[in-house]
Amino acid sequence: MRTDRCLFLAAAIALGGIAVPGTASGQDPQPGPAERAGQRMDRAADRAGQAMQATTQPGEALAPDAEDIRETLKSVTHAAFTKGGFDDLVERFVDADRNRLGQDGFPEREHQTLDGRIAQLQKDWKAKYDQDFKMGDKEDVFTASFAQIIQSEIGAGARLAGERTPAEPGAEPRVDAPRPRDDSQRLGGGDTNREPGRNIATVTIPAGHGLPELRVPLIHEFPDVWRIDVPDNYSAQQLHDNLLKHLTMFNEQKDQWPNDPNEAYRAAAHHVLAAVMNVDATEGGQGMEGGLMPRQPQQAPGGTVPPANR
User: Fold this and answer.
1) In this model, does residue 310 exceed pLDDT 70?
2) Fewest 10 Å CB contacts: which of 72, 172, 173, 268?
3) Cα–Cα distance between 200 and 159 in angstroms, integer?
4) Alpha-carbon gap, residue 99 to 105, rounded angstroms
5) Residue 198: DSSP 8-state
6) By the 8 A CB rule, do 143 and 265 touch?
7) Residue 259 or 290, more confident
8) Cβ distance 300 to 170 under 8 Å?
9) Res 284 pLDDT > 90
10) With a threshold of 0.70, does the pTM exceed it?
């Protein structure tokens, strides 16, 4: 009988049915080995799920402000496709570029030829898609495969990679290396807003739509807005001519516009951003014939993203 009672008590304790003597009154008993093993498995599953989410949503992992950056890309595209919206387009640039391009009042003038092209585009878009040129969800257009966003922060004494000269250590020789802005070394006082600690980002658009790959730099400005840092090597008149050229090219390809409006929005945005970054349509890329699906952005050796076009 004593042996039977001992076996019963041992089984009851293992199953948690009888409290172990010495357990403080009112306190939860400590989990057993099986329960602790289950908890460890739950924590491992949670970590695996978080890792998988970071992998399947790389844009959010690499750019916490991805949503706001996509909003800037969307508003830039809309401004370019709006009659009388040329000055609104310039307002999406960083303050140094807004001041430079707007110093003679050119953006606020009437641009009849450009507005005429936009009116024709709006008409053709309506005929094709039975809707106005107005994006819905920006995430459906500026997907991670079309617009890869990398966000970072300016370090103390650092310059953007595109501003290095070939003679500097760590810089790759480039025949098209642009000269740095005159005030690029001014910390806290220049209009370029490049003081240490400021957030910056680069959006990479892969080659496609008859256009080459683009790398679009952005800077975060007060109070909480992302703006495009355009090249310094063109005037407001040249920006106007670039935009007119790209919109004309896009309009003349209307017979090749895809049935999916979101893919057509991507092609339109690609043309607008190429005009903004002073990239000519003849510099490379795939033609629109045979589809508009873009290629994945290429990475430099070591897995790093190439520096932004300047």
Assistant:
1) no
2) 173
3) 12
4) 10
5) -
6) no
7) 259
8) no
9) no
10) no
d(C-alpha 241, C-alpha 270), whole Å: 16
What contacts 24+ positions apart, CB below 8 Å, involve 160-164?
160/194, 160/200, 160/217, 160/307, 160/308, 160/310, 161/307, 161/308, 162/217, 162/307, 162/308, 162/309, 162/310, 163/310
The contacts of residue 190 (CB under 8 Å, 6+ apart) are 96, 183, 184
295 secondary structure, DSSP code: P
pLDDT reported for residue 90: 98
With 60 as the cut, is the pLDDT of residue 110 above it?
Answer: yes
Query: How far is residue 63 from each of residues 74, 77, 203, 221, measured CA to CA in Å?
Result: 17, 21, 10, 16
**Nearest of 59, 69, 62 to residue 221 by alpha carbon:** 69
Give the pLDDT band (50/70/90) at residue 37.
low
What pLDDT does 144 receive? 95
Interior/surface letters 202-230, b for 16+ CB within 10 angstroms, e for the rest: bbbbbbbbbbbbbbbbbbbeeeeebbbbb
Please identify which residue in the block is written with the tokens 């695996």.
Answer: 48
AA identity, residue 257: W
Residue 263 in this model has a pLDDT that exceeds 90: yes
227: which strand partners? 219
What's the confidence (pLDDT) of residue 214?
Answer: 97
* HSE value, Cβ hemisphere, 13 Å, CA-based, for 257: 22
